[in-house]
Write a structure and sequence with these properties.
2 strands
């Protein structure tokens, strides 16, 4: 699974800013141990660059 680290949409919450929410979930994805496969966290630009090689 690939997670786009700068592809989140959110807004400020009562106790966290949008940037803090994004940072938290990127950390959760990065630290998660999936039952199968692996989780890759990359930026949108990294994803687009990798996609050029596939297409």
């Amino acid at each position: 699974m690939t997670v786009i680290s700068d592809g989140h949409t959110t807004a400020d919450r009562p106790s966290l800013t949008a940037k803090q929410v994004i940072a938290h979930y990127n950390w959760v994805w990065k630290e998660m141990t999936p039952a199968r496969g692996q989780i890759e966290i990359i930026t949108c630009n990294e994803y687009l660059e990798k996609s050029k090689n596939v297409l």
